[in-house]
Amino acid sequence: MVSDLLVRRGGAGRPLVLVHGLMGRGSTWSRQVPWLARLGEVFTYDAPWHRGRHVPDSRPICTERFVEDLGEAVQSLGAPAVMVGHSMGALHSWCLAAARPELVAAVVVEDMAPDFRGRTTGPWEPWLRALPVEFGTAEQVYAEFGPVAGRYFLEAFDRTDSGWRLHGEPQRWIEIAAEWGTRDYWDQWRAVSAPTLLLEAGDSVTPPGQMQTMTRLASSAIYLPVPGAGHLIHDDAPGKYRDAVEAFLATFTPHT
User: Fold this and answer.
1) Phi and psi based region of residue 248 (left: phi greater than 0; alpha: psi -120 to 50; beta: remaining)
2) pLDDT at 255 over 70
3) Mean pLDDT across the stretch 77-95?
């Protein structure tokens, strides 16, 4: 029985699990689902602390907790999955591939790197803490986040009778990002044996050069920079993103 943490979005064949980034949600993949559903059976997933403000979670925040949760969901599919991860979701996807390789057929890594040590959340904490709990209009969301990210967050936030409510607690999101400044994930990356596609935004959030180093360290990796794209490559440069993912998935035969 498929885990209730996964939402089936359509398609048939090999499972494709779409894993969102920090402050995202499975619902933000709406523009990618139609073409991905022609490549396999598509599922979306909401990570802990991103499942709605009404969903409490008092457990400690750590990457291993995320990976365990994601692994339990993917295991329920009964076949190795192609993990399509953005940012935080890419990190958790490759850590799952390292820890439980039998669950993962391949990984798409979108604009994420293993080592943010020394980088703090300080510069953006005041902005995040100042966000209203609820936005009354879509125009307010676009004004706060811009046209690309604004559309993304309209899909992520909880819809209410009076507007769009944050789907998690900003303090928890800060704590998630803060962990990345205290540790690295190079060992987990080196342990990945599945085919991987690494997409780096022209306006990337990753430390310079790290994604190229990831390619050199991996046993089976393809690296593709996407000039001019922001962190949300799949929404900011959707044609280039689609071409890259389709070509990547055509290069290997998934495990059965």
Assistant:
1) alpha
2) no
3) 98
pLDDT over threshold 90, residue 49 = yes
Alpha carbon separation from 217 to 135, 193, 248, 252 (Å, rounded): 44, 11, 18, 19
CB-based contact 84:9 (threshold 8 Å): no
Counting Cα atoms < 13 Å in the Cβ hemisphere of 168 gives 22
**Residue range 232-251: average pLDDT?**
97
Distance CA 42, CA 37 (A): 6
Helix %, strand %, coil % of the chain (to 5): 40, 20, 40
Matching residue, tokens 């709605």: 52
Return the closest-CA partner of residue 36 out of 16, 19, 20: 16
- The single-letter DSSP state of residue 27 is G
Return mean pLDDT, the chain: 95
Output the CATH code of domain 6-131+166-249.
3.40.50.1820
Domain limits of the chain? 6-131+166-249
The residues near 256 (Cβ < 8 Å, ≥ 6 apart) are 79
CA distance 199 to 237: 11
At residue 120, the pLDDT reads: 84
Helix intervals (H) in the chain: 33-36, 63-75, 88-99, 125-129, 138-145, 147-156, 170-180, 186-190, 210-217, 233-236, 238-249
Please say whether the dihedral angle defined by the alpha carbons of residues 243, 104, 202 and 66, taken in this order, is positive or negative. positive
CB atoms under 10 Å from CB of 140, counted, come to 15
